[in-house]
Write a sequence for this structure.
C-alpha cells in the first residue's frame, strides 16, 4: 500500500528535497523512474509531497545520489539523514550501510535505457532565488493531481513560454498555482510571484521584478520605460525565470468576453505578447477569470502558449474538503452539496461553515439541501436554475 502524507495535506518540504536531489543527479521524472524501477507517477507524487518512497526505493535513490555526487561534499551523511527523516520511514537509517555506501562512491544501479539529450535537465549550481511576495499559504490541497501533472509537463518538459490557469472566482486557481510553483521551483534559477489584485501600475511591477532578477540590488534603474523593458528582456533570456502573475482579470475591461486590456495597461499587454512570441528560456504563469485577448491567436496544442480551464473539484476531493470542515452525515448528502455548488472550493467552504455553525455539521438538514432561506441563490458561486451567481474572489 502506498504510504501517503498526512490526510489532506502535502509535505512540500519533502517534495522539494526530492526535486532538488533529482535535478542534481540530472534526470527527468521518467529517467529517475527507470533507475528506481517505479512508475513516473510515483516520482511525481513524491515531488508533490503527496506520498513517500518505500524503503527499497529510498535506498536506491540515495545510492544513486551518492554515486552521482548529488549531495554536498563533506555533508553527505547529514543530508542523507535529513532525507531519510523527511521520508518518514518506519525504521532508522542503517549507519553501517550508509558508511559502506559512502566508501564506495559509485552508482549501484543501471538504467533500463540511456537518457537522450532531451531528457537531461540542466543542473543549477545554486538553489533558485525566490520571491513569493504575498502568495497564498496552502496548508491543505484537495485533488487536482491531473491538472498539476498537465501544468508541470507544459512548463518543465515542453518549455511553454506562457501558461494560463483560467476559471471562475473561488474555483481554486491561486491555490493550484501556488502548489505548482512550489513543485517546479527547482527547475528555475529565479521564481517571482506577484498579485495583480490591486492593479499595480505596470512601471511599479517592472521595477520590482527587475530588482529581484538582478544579481545584486540595483541602485539606479534606467530612466525610460523602454530601457527598463529591454533590461527585463535581457534577464529573462539570460536566466531561466518563472514569473507568476495572479488575478490578471483585474487588468481587463469589465463585461468583455474577448479579454481586452483596460486603458493604461498597455505595458502589461506588451509583456504578454513578448513572453508569448519571443524565444527565451523563461515562463510566465498567470491566473485569470478571462483569457487575455493578446494570447488567444497564439495558443495551440503544439504552441508554447497554453491554457487550462479549471473546473470544480471532483466528488472525492469535495468529500475530503467537507469532512475536514466538520460536516457529518451521509456521503450522499455531501455529494449533493458538491454537485449543487459545482465543486467550487470556496463556495463549499462557505456553506460548510454555515452548516457547522447553524446545524452542528449535519449536512442532511433540509435547511441546506433545499428549503427556503438557504437556497443556492443565496450562497455565492452556487448553481441555480437561472444560471451561476456572480463569481467569488479567489
Amino acid at each position: 500500500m502506498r504510504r501517503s502524507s498526512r490526510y489532506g495535506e502535502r509535505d512540500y518540504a519533502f517534495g522539494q528535497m526530492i526535486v532538488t536531489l533529482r535535478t542534481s543527479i540530472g534526470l527527468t521524472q521518467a529517467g529517475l523512474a527507470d533507475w528506481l524501477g517505479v512508475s513516473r507517477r510515483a516520482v511525481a507524487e513524491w515531488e508533490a509531497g503527496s506520498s513517500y518512497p518505500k524503503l527499497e526505493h529510498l535506498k536506491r535513490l540515495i545510492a544513486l545520489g551518492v554515486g552521482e555526487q548529488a549531495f554536498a561534499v563533506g555533508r553527505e551523511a547529514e543530508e542523507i539523514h535529513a532525507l531519510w527523516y523527511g521520508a518518514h520511514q518506519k525504521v532508522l537509517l542503517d549507519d553501517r550501510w550508509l558508511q559502506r555506501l559512502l566508501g564506495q562512491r559509485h552508482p549501484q544501479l543501471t538504467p533500463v535505457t540511456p537518457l537522450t539529450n532531451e531528457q537531461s535537465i540542466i543542473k543549477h549550481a545554486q538553489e533558485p532565488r525566490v520571491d513569493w511576495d504575498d502568495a497564498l499559504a496552502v496548508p491543505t490541497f484537495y485533488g487536482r493531481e491531473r491538472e498539476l501533472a498537465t501544468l508541470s509537463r507544459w512548463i518543465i518538459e515542453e518549455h511553454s513560454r506562457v501558461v494560463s490557469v483560467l476559471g471562475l472566482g473561488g474555483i481554486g486557481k491561486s491555490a493550484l498555482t501556488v502548489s505548482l510553483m512550489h513543485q517546479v521551483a527547482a527547475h528555475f534559477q529565479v521564481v517571482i510571484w506577484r498579485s495583480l489584485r490591486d492593479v499595480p501600475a505596470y512601471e511599479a511591477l517592472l521595477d520590482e521584478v527587475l530588482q529581484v532578477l538582478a544579481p545584486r540590488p540595483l541602485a539606479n534603474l534606467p530612466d525610460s520605460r523602454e530601457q527598463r523593458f529591454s533590461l527585463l528582456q535581457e534577464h529573462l533570456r539570460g536566466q531561466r525565470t518563472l514569473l507568476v502573475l495572479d488575478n490578471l482579470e483585474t487588468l481587463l475591461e469589465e463585461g468583455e468576453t474577448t479579454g481586452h486590456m483596460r486603458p493604461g495597461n498597455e505595458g502589461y499587454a506588451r509583456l504578454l505578447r513578448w513572453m508569448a512570441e519571443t524565444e527565451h528560456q523563461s515562463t510566465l504563469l498567470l491566473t485569470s477569470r478571462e483569457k487575455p485577448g493578446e494570447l488567444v491567436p497564439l495558443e495551440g496544442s503544439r504552441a508554447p502558449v497554453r491554457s487550462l480551464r479549471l473546473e470544480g473539484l471532483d466528488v472525492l476531493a469535495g468529500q475530503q474538503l467537507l469532512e475536514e470542515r466538520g460536516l457529518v452525515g451521509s456521503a450522499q448528502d455531501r455529494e449533493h452539496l458538491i454537485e449543487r455548488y459545482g465543486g467550487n472550493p470556496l463556495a463549499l467552504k462557505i456553506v460548510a461553515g454555515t452548516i457547522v455553525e447553524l446545524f452542528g455539521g449535519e449536512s442532511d438538514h433540509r435547511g441546506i439541501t433545499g428549503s427556503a432561506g438557504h437556497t443556492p441563490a443565496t450562497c455565492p458561486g452556487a448553481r441555480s436554475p437561472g444560471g451561476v451567481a456572480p463569481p467569488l474572489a479567489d
